[in-house]
Design brief:
Chain A is of the alpha/beta class. Chain A contains seven helices and 15 strands. Chain B folds into two domains: 205 residues, HUPs (Rossmann fold, 3-Layer(aba) Sandwich); 30 residues. In chain B, α2 crosses α5 and α3 crosses α4. The chains are: A alpha/beta, B alpha/beta, C mainly alpha. Chains in contact: A-B, A-C, B-C. The interface between A and B is large, with 89 and 81 residues. β10 of chain A pairs antiparallel with β9 of chain B. The structure holds flavin-adenine dinucleotide (FAD) and iron/sulfur cluster (SF4). Flavin-adenine dinucleotide (FAD) sits at the interface of chains A and C.
């Protein structure tokens, strides 16, 4: 039976990629196999079966993961290997492609396959265009994170394969979690940004909470940092501050002057909340809510909590 | 220390035009040095200023790309190698293969630096592929690089953690933009850089094509580039719920 | 006086010798600085100074007292033997000496005040002791020279003390020869160099045509030895008068810059060490970035020191060394990539004009005027209202005009002021090529930075047009009756006009906006600093795109001045001034509204 393999270093992402793999397997008439490296991972689900590769350490470096999977693939000949498009996943897929001399499609969503090849869609040119990409089997692919629902259960049969010990000349000597407060605005995927619509410094707390709940960082317009000093200087976004390109920019109580917009105009999706329906920020937004942030923000937090 | 840095002449997405059918027009589109590649060049220059040696710029591109090559040389790189091929017509593997061959040809290098991904297509595949094809240790997403003797200590910036790794030289790395602030070359410096040596090679002469599966782009369409301007109505609760729904559908909120 | 008295003969000889020394020094410095001391220039200078008499500027008058006081006492002592024969002349001189002595006393007091405040500034800037000493030394000499001259004028009244007078005069003449001959030469050489004239280190067109080898180009100064003769003469001429420091908005805002200190530093540096001295070891980067290029220093300097030449040359040096932070380099990259400093898609420039029936030149190549919109009025929603208002006025008056739309590129001023001359010239050449291709003859500008570049700088690169400022055109249209403000539409508001540096100080446009406002509003008030003495809004010299450390904001100082007039509206004539002051009124919660002259007039039609 032809197989589509799934691998991600993160359980959550693995469960998303496993959903994507179902579509590919269906089109190609194949079955899905979710990979586990070194040790079993109870949080990883599979609609088809699981394949445990023995030999690599249980949390391998991307180099070791790629080597282990490549060894297995040379023997078992899957038609496709899918990883999540995380930093690690991109590296693993690319290295696999180079080792196996196969093509690799990147950051794809809407995956599918026919008898010969795998295809999908991806954003290019800073989101200005969508490209349909395809590659003949065997192929690798990195799947856009967040594009598929997470598989919430399912565990087919477990197979094992010993690939032998693998090692990477690159040695990890330390690992430290990025502290939530130190989230770098430039690399944040979601930014909640506060403007003068916020009445008091203490009120920033609810936006900080919201940012946390959205797995994002808190930014602000210049008056809040430069004039009022409520937030450190490096939080202000715009012409004289930082330039950001998050996936989601949520402007709360920001009027949207050019000097501010210049720093966030390349965000993928912009949403804004403002009491003034004529505020220029709505011209720069995909979604706008005319309303008082003191009512809308708590309501959003409730809506988020209801989803979780 | 010899440093190779890979640079792409990327499509400038700001001025991208669309044709009648709403497809982006790539022929004749304005180009620029891929944004993060500036960080890669800057890091190469910093390594050079600390450890002496030379910086060579490697690029796969068409004749248009020379503008970007000169910019990298104007920043302070010593020489360039331009392998002619249309980066839009070849896939990431082929790009990495050609770069690897060109680098090997003029090497060996102690460090090969790329940026994490190009600003136009952002696949992030070439750097790890290059590491594999060169057969050297590879470290991705570096936000700090310290070389001492024959090894390097590197901080990798991952989604929610920072990992410190050690690797022997030679090695290949990709850098993230937080690693440095690239210098701005002046127009006159770019003109002066026109005199630095640029070696031009044909892709097929460097590495014969074939023998692998090529990724293709059967079609491309535009996304509306202007904002959607959807105004969400209702009570705060209704509006909030609708907003969250919309953002989840956009795939920007988990 | 007995002509044959040997003591007096010796005194007279000493006087003549000391005066000769002054002229010798003048000739020496003129030669070194290649400055011509021709009678024509002297007449020109005299006329120029006379024309400033009318302004009643106190600093200028004090300065004039010093110059005339010295001149009078020298004339008196040289004419001394003859005065016995013409008693009337003696009386005339004595009478004239009275107001001069008063002016000198005032100057003395002013000098002491400047001395104290200059020490305060130096302390705030953390200037090293060696620096402070040399500055104090020069200021004390100036105070001494004033005291000596005053004493001499007083002594004229007491013939019995003539010997003492002669001794004082000789000492003062020696001081003048040693310290003030060089500044006089600088003044004569450069009094008529216009404020807007920027030194051009290379011509990009020649480089592109292969006529100039790019390797031969040195843009700016990275070593003290690279200042040329004219600059050296300029900064070595500084005698610590401090008028620049008193006028400088950067100093007033507590930024790390005083033009006086900068000039002294550079002079010490160039005089002190070997040729390779790194100017940035003593001149800080933020010191240079603090300057808004408002020109107040240059305009106020009585001896024609050109502070801005030094600022630009050192900024060019920083740019060449890549010493730019992200904000500055991003602005330059945007200019290179998108032809506007904000990084917006340039083809969307004309979005503001949608639905207004404003033609592009491509659609209407016969239009009489090209309206040069400028980047801020193209992309900023607030500033777009200026462009819309002007369009309304022009249409109402039946003026035929068109815009370039997406073909307009940044005029280049932000790049030039930041010190990236190449990028500036590239933009200028691109724009000139388009303008010439359309055969443009007349241009209207609403941004004084565009206006200044188009009017004064582009001709040097092959772009010669008749350029008018919108306030000039509007007041013309009112005067000609082509637009009329009916009495019932005159706004009953109190307005104060903030003159933009690049319109007023740089280009002497200041009466026209007042005329336009006088026709449109009931109550026009003036701030203390106005017209060519205006105070910067803080945005010029590319300051709009970055920030420097400061104690208070320049725009805040200006907004407070405007508020003091009691006016409820600040009228501006520049989109940057509008943006800065508007922002400032919001931050300060000042209940004032900020509008461009064009908007105010358009509302009255
Ligand atoms: C040279 C220069 C450079 C500048 N650079 C920058 C820069 O880099 N970044 C930057 O941000 N700014 C910059 N500015 C300032 C900029 O012009 C604006 O003044 C600033 O962005 C406005 O900030 P704001 O939107 O928070 O405040 P405001 O303009 O005061 O807007 C507040 C908004 O909140 C809304 N609001 C009020 N109450 C509520 C409520 N209860 N719920 C919801 N909404 C509410 C109001 O309707 C209003 O739209 C710069 C200005 C200048 C002159
Ligand atoms: S130009 Fe203006 S800001 Fe710059 S030094 Fe002179 S007075 Fe100060």
């Amino acid at each position: 039976m032809k197989a589509v393999w799934v691998y991600s270093e993160s359980d959550a992402v693995s469960n998303e990629v496993a959903s994507a793999a179902v579509d590919v397997a269906k089109g190609a008439g194949a079955e899905v196999q979710v990979l586990e490296l070194g040790a079993q991972r109870p949080g990883v689900f599979a609609s088809g079966g699981k394949l445990l590769l023995k030999g690599p350490p249980s949390s391998p470096t991307p180099g070791a993961a790629a080597e282990a999977i490549a060894r297995a693939a040379r023997e078992l000949q899957p038609i496709a290997i899918l990883t999540g498009a995380t930093r690690t996943g991109r590296e693993v897929a690319s290295r696999l492609a180079a080792k196996l001399r196969i093509g690799c499609i990147a950051e794809v969503s809407k995956l599918g396959a026919d008898g010969e090849s795998i295809f999908g869609e991806r954003n290019v040119f800073a989101g200005k265009a969508v490209a349909r990409v395809s590659c003949p089997f065997p192929a690798a692919a990195t799947v856009k994170v967040g594009a598929y629902p997470r598989l919430a259960g399912g565990n087919g049969g477990l197979q094992e394969k010993d690939v032998g010990a693998v090692s990477d000349p690159v040695k990890v000597v330390a690992r430290e979690a990025k502290s939530a407060g130190a989230v770098d605005l430039k690399s944040a995927k979601v930014i909640v940004s506060a403007g003068r619509g916020v009445k008091k410094k203490e009120d920033l707390a609810i936006l900080e909470e919201l940012a946390k709940e959205m797995h994002g960082a808190l930014g602000c317009s210049r008056p809040l940092s430069a004039d009022l000093g409520w937030l450190p200087e490096e939080h202000h976004i715009g012409l004289t501050g930082v330039t950001v390109k998050p996936e989601l920019y949520l402007a709360v109580g920001i009027s949207g002057q050019l000097q501010h917009v210049a720093g966030m105009k390349d965000s993928k999706v912009v949403a804004s909340i403002n009491t003034d329906k004529d505020a220029p920020i709505f011209q720069a937004s995909d979604y706008g809510v005319v309303g008082d942030l003191y009512q809308v923000v708590p309501a959003i937090r409730k809506a988020l909590a209801a989803r979780a | 220390m010899k440093v190779a840095v890979c640079v792409k002449h990327a499509v400038d997405e700001t001025e991208l035009k669309l044709d009648q059918g709403g497809r982006p027009v790539l022929g004749g589109a304005a180009g620029k040095m891929s944004t993060f590649d500036k960080n890669a060049v800057e890091e190469a220059l910093r390594l050079k200023s600390k450890h002496q040696g030379e910086v060579a710029v490697f690029m796969v591109g068409t004749a248009d790309s020379k503008k970007t090559m000169k910019e990298a040389l104007a920043m302070g790189a010593d020489r360039g190698v331009l392998v002619s091929a249309d980066p839009a017509a070849i896939d990431t593997f082929r790009t990495a293969e050609v770069l690897a061959a060109a680098i090997r040809r003029s090497g060996p290098y102690d460090v090969v630096i790329c940026s994490e991904g190009s600003s136009d297509t952002y696949s992030g595949q070439v750097p790890p592929m290059l590491g594999e094809l060169l057969g050297v240790p590879y470290v991705g997403y570096a936000r700090k690089i310290e070389v001492s003797g024959q090894s390097a200590k590197i901080e990798r910036s991952l989604e929610d953690s920072v990992e410190t790794v050690e690797s022997p030289l030679p090695l290949a790395v990709s850098v993230v933009s937080e690693i440095n602030e690239p210098r701005y070359p002046t127009l006159i410096q770019i003109m002066q850089a026109g005199k630095k040596p640029i070696e031009e090679l044909a892709a097929d002469a460097v590495a014969p094509a074939g023998g692998y599966r090529q990724v293709s782009v059967p079609s491309m369409s535009s996304q509306p580039s202007t904002r959607k301007h959807v105004m969400i109505e209702g009570t705060p609760e209704e509006a909030a719920a609708k907003l969250v729904d919309a953002l989840v559908k956009e795939g920007v909120l988990k | 006086m007995a002509a044959l008295d040997p003591v007096f003969a010796v005194a007279y000889a000493a006087t003549v010798a000391s005066v000769a020394l002054v002229f010798l020094a003048l000739a020496l410095f003129a030669r070194r600085g290649s400055v011509s001391l021709s009678p024509g220039r002297l007449v020109g200078l005299t006329k120029d100074e006379a024309s400033r008499l009318g302004t009643g500027d106190a600093v200028f008058l004090m300065h004039l007292s010093i110059a005339l006081g010295v001149g009078l006492s020298i004339s008196y002592s040289l004419l001394d033997p003859a005065l016995g024969l013409v008693p009337l002349l003696r009386t005339v001189i004595l009478v004239v000496s009275l107001p001069l002595a008063l002016g000198l006393v005032a100057s003395f007091a002013w000098r002491v005040e400047r001395f104290v405040s200059s020490k305060r500034v130096e302390k705030a800037l953390g200037s090293p002791a060696s620096f402070t000493t040399s500055s104090s030394y020069l200021q004390l000499i100036l105070i001494l020279a004033i005291a000596l001259t005053t004493t001499e004028l007083v002594l004229l009244w007491f013939p019995s003390l003539a010997l003492a007078g002669a001794a004082v005069g000789v000492l003062r003449n020696v001081l003048v020869a040693a310290y003030y001959a060089r500044p006089s030469v600088n003044l004569i050489g450069y009094f008529d160099k216009p404020l807007h004239e920027v030194r051009v280190p290379f011509n990009l067109a020649d480089v592109m045509a292969g006529k100039t080898d790019p390797d031969s180009i040195r843009s700016g100064v990275s070593k003290a030895s690279e200042f040329d003769a004219a600059e050296r003469l300029s900064f070595d001429s500084c005698v610590e008068i401090g008028a620049c420091e008193a006028a400088c908005p950067a100093t007033a805002a507590g930024r790390p810059l005083s033009p006086r200190v900068l000039v002294r530093k550079v002079s010490l540096l160039a005089g002190s060490g070997g040729p390779a001295v790194d100017p940035f070891a003593s001149v800080g980067e933020d010191e240079l970035w603090s300057c808004t290029s408002c020109g107040a220093c240059v305009a106020s300097c009585p001896v024609s020191v050109k502070h801005l030449d030094i600022v630009y040359d050192l900024r060019r040096g920083l740019v060449a060394q890549g010493r730019l932070d992200k904000k500055k380099s991003m602005m330059l990259e945007n200019l290179a990539q998108t032809q506007n400093p904000y990084g917006f898609k340039n083809s969307t420039r004309a979005a503001w004009a949608e639905g207004l029936g404003v033609d592009t030149l491509a659609a209407n190549p016969k239009a009489e005027y090209l309206y040069w919109v400028g980047c801020l009025s193209s992309f900023d929603q607030r500033a777009q209202r200026i462009a819309k208002a002007l369009s309304t006025i022009l249409k109402r008056a039946g003026v035929s005009f068109a815009i370039l739309g997406g073909e307009e590129g940044c005029v280049g001023d932000p790049a030039r002021r930041l010190g990236e001359e190449g990028r500036y010239q590239e933009l200028a050449l691109q724009n000139i090529e388009k303008l010439n291709a359309y055969g443009v003859k007349k241009i209207i500008a609403t941004c004084p930075h565009c206006f200044n570049a188009l009017k004064n700088e582009y001709p040097g690169f092959g772009g010669k047009y008749e350029v008018v400022y919108h306030t000039q055109l509007i007041s013309d249209l009112i005067r000609q009756g082509r637009i009329k403000v009916p009495p019932e539409k005159v706004q009953s508001i109190s307005v104060t006009l903030h003159d933009a540096c690049y319109a007023s100080r740089y280009n002497s446009v200041f009466d026209e906006p007042r005329e336009a406002l006088a026709a449109s509003v009931a109550d026009l008030r003036e701030m203390h600093r106005k017209k060519e003495k205006t105070f910067c809004c803080g945005a010029g010299g590319s300051n709009y795109w970055y920030e420097v450390p400061q104690q208070k904001s320049i725009s805040g100082i200006r907004t407070a001045e405007a508020a003091k007039t009691g006016a409820k509206t600040i009228a501006t004539e520049c989109p940057f001034c509008l943006s800065m002051l508007d922002d400032s009124t919001k931050v300060m919660d000042a209940a004032m509204d900020v509008r461009d002259v064009a908007e105010i007039v358009a509302e009255c039609l």
